[in-house]
Amino acid sequence: MGRLDDRSARVLEGRPPQAAAPPHAGRRGRVPSGPLIEILQESGLGIHPRLSALGPDILSPRFDGAEALRRLQLRPDREIGEALLDQEALAGVGNVFKSEALFRRRIHPRRRIRDIRPEEFRALWKELPRLMSAGAKVAGSIVTLPRRLRKHDETRWVYRRTGRPCFVCGTRIETLRQGGRDSYFCPRCQR
Length: 191
Ligand SMILES: [Zn+2]
Known about the structure:
Layout: E1 8-12, E2 36-40, H1 65-72, H2 80-83, H3 95-104, H4 118-134, E3 137-138, E4 141-142, E5 174-178, E6 181-185
Antiparallel strand pairs: 1-2, 3-4, 5-6
Helix pairs in contact: 3-4
The structure holds zinc ion.
Zinc ion is lined by residues 166, 168-169, 171, 186, 188-189.
């Protein structure tokens, strides 16, 4: 478990074992149940049994796109719309931003990992954090559309816009199921 002089901390779910009780708490007793907080050094993240399973964090300033790509390519037949949600390949991408980023980069969600060019991945690694940091939450809803296109019920490029016209070409947005999740896309803009 952790050491007091460690610098970074991650919160994991789980019951705290006695060994996790912080020595500086100054008293002994029951460790309250709830999230287990482990204190780790940066160098420990790669060997931690649970954290090492996670892929590179898309929002980290030190995001390692080559490593994310390497992990995605372990299953080259997988469709990109499913693979981007695999937290062991790439951590931090949720269903909304997956659909939005694929639309912005004009990548069809059914395309397989092996058919996507390295420069398309590099563009995605830029697009995702850009959308995610710009995607302000308005009244609890993620907004990705630029202000000039927003209306009261239109806040995203494609997500949950099935049947509505694409903001770029006017074609109706479609939905498909992948890995138990919905992917939203424009059948004309995305190839
Ligand atoms: Zn379109």
